[in-house]
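> call design_seq(struct)
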């Protein structure tokens, strides 16, 4: 199987369970009351503690207790390389996910959706990390967390645009995203 095929298979295998778990959580969690922004802040903090902070700790412990304590000595293990890549990717994904969670809390109306989204994103980051340690192409098993973050951000920005200027606001804010995404898919599918 090609590397691209392995990633595609991992993504395909992970999407249905992630979607079903999100739906189950939205229905099974008890009603959540309180200030939506405070709740989003708590969910964001928990998600970052359980993903980004753990990645930082994994890299720090690896450096502290192994030959890679000198980062210029060239003694980094493959485990450290994977942990660093997980950390970098999680930092990138968190930059989209945290504001997305606040927008979701502001516009969704049901805070169980916010909790379920934070839980699924966190589980996706863990799956990405574990999959990466199994083999680089199996990181695809957690790529759905990227989709969760992007879809949540697009929903929140679209809801903001709709509240601001109706469907014209939605088109003004999400139209450029759709056009650039389409362009990237077309251009990057061709060999360089």
């Amino acid at each position: 199987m090609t590397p691209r095929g392995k990633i595609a298979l991992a993504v395909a295998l992970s999407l249905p369970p992630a979607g079903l778990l999100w739906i189950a959580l939205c229905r099974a969690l008890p009603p959540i009351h309180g200030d939506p922004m405070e709740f989003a802040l708590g969910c964001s903090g928990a998600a970052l503690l359980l993903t980004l902070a753990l990645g930082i700790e994994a890299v720090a412990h690896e450096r502290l207790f192994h030959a890679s304590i000198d980062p210029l000595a060239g003694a980094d293990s493959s485990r450290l390389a994977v942990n660093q890549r997980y950390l970098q990717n999680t930092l990138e994904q968190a930059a989209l996910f945290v504001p997305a969670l606040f927008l979701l809390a502001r516009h969704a109306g049901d805070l169980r959706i916010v909790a379920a989204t934070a839980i699924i994103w966190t589980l996706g980051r863990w799956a990405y990390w574990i999959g990466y340690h199994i083999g680089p192409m199996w990181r695809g098993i957690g790529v759905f967390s990227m989709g969760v973050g992007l879809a949540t951000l697009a929903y929140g920005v679209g809801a903001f645009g709709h509240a601001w200027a109706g469907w014209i606001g939605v088109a003004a804010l999400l139209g450029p995203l759709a056009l650039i995404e389409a362009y990237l898919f077309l251009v990057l599918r061709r060999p360089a």
